[in-house]
Amino acid sequence: MSYSISEQELLRRQKKEELEALGINPYPSATFASNTSTQDILSNFNKAPDNFKQISIAGRIMGRRIMGAASFVELQDASGKIQLYVHRDTLCPGDDKSFYNTVFKKLLDIGDLIGIEGYVFTTQVGEISIHVNKLTLLSKALRPLPVVKEDDKQVYDAFTDPEQRYRQRYVDLLVTPTTRSIFQKRTQMIQAIRQYLNSQGYDEVETPILQPLYGGASARPFKTHHNTLDMSLYLRIANELYLKRLIVGGYEGVYEFAKDFRNEGMSRFHNPEFTMLELYVAYKDYKWMMNLTEELLEQVALHLYGTTAVPVGTHTIDFKRPWKRFTMFEAIQHFTGIDISQMEELELRKAAATLSVPLEASAGKAKIIDEIFGAKCEPNLIQPTFITDYPVEMSPLAKQHRDNPTLVERFEVICNGKEICNAFSELNDPIEQRKRFEEQLQLGQRGDEEAMMLDEDFLRALSYGMPPTAGLGIGIDRLAMIMTNAPSIQEVIFFPQMRPEH
Q1: Per-residue pLDDT tens for 79-94?
Q2: What would the CATH number be for the domain defined by 7-145?
Q3: Confidence (pTM)
Q4: Does residue 295 have a known ligand-binding role?
Q5: According to the annotation, is 412 in a ligand binding site?
Q6: Looking at the domain 177-323+383-491, which fold is it?
Q7: Which InterPro entries match (predicted)?
């Protein structure tokens, strides 16, 4: 990528050189010790003004008004913004006023990082501000920030282009307050989930990202090569099979926040690198897991907002229990008027054609049902809804339904038109699991690039006996979209995957 230096950058480089000529290091290595934050000051100064008579704080210059012997600076730290009052005679108490007249007024810029010492006071117009006694340059910014300007209710130079925002997230975080709040909410959401699962006595664990066989989901993997072992490895598409190995090993409840990778299409709901929570609990089934899922997500909404009702676009999504429940075939019949429950592959293809649902030539029965459901049902499911009891062909890792051998004990949670959770009564019969894997191999031979591989070590683990187990996966990024009212997955991932810059 070529790089040309703008006129403003050249000017800032000249200022850097002038600072160095004055003996001021633009990038000092000394520590600066803050003893407060802007949020602390703004929240607590009026309650306890004596606590803010000697403060030190560091942050970035986001605005300046130079007014002769006195100036105002807008300082931003991680918690917010506050006004600084800088007076020449306070900053330079002796005869030499060059630090104020030259360094402060001429050589500092918006974007520079400074540390200040002083005391907090209230201006004549009632604004809480810091009277600066000492100012230290901590880092010189050589690129100008995109400073937003407003004039007669019109906004200029706003940093709003999505591609720029995602590529330069560091700038987006500096100049777009809503971006920081989205990621703070995401962090709070993950903490709430972790706190809930820990309170249930489940163990947080870690499993391999580089795997000799990919499994646990139907997806196309990323492939790499390990030179020392001279073998192919895959970035995991799911951590399911490793967590089940831990259940075999005696754990009764394990979970992991996992980075997964799928070599598939990209959209506002898909990023090739994404975060999943997976949970496995021994001696439980999918009905029990439905109740836990309702309770967990209800608690997350309450933790974030103090209510179960969350605004998402033009909707208000309510996570209050209980949620609506459909079987998969009931949902398809409800939204299409067609009962596909007894159809074989040829009839399903005709039904898909009738419904104008496009199919790939390699699609088998499970894929066709999934495409019909995705096109005709998912977009209509806005409130959190359980879809249960999937055809056995769609779920190679789920246990056969106790009442209907053509189905499996599985549910998905659809919310705001997309799947956010997937769960099974886990298949623990090693012979049946081998049969399912072999059927997946046949789909792969037909050209299905998302078919699962046969994992002999996982089958060996099952052969030692895995207790009845309920498993749950939650798409953390999609859940974050809902919980932060974000329109795309790129808004809730710090650095989403993008094409190279030209």
Answers
A1: 999 999 999 999 999 9
A2: 2.40.50.140
A3: 0.91
A4: no
A5: yes
A6: BirA Bifunctional Protein; domain 2 (3.30.930)
A7: Aa-tRNA-synt_II, aa-tRNA-synth_II, aa-tRNA-synth_II/BPL/LPL, Lys-tRNA-ligase_II, Lys-tRNA-ligase_II_N, Lys-tRNA-synth_II_C, NA-bd_OB-fold, NA-bd_OB_tRNA
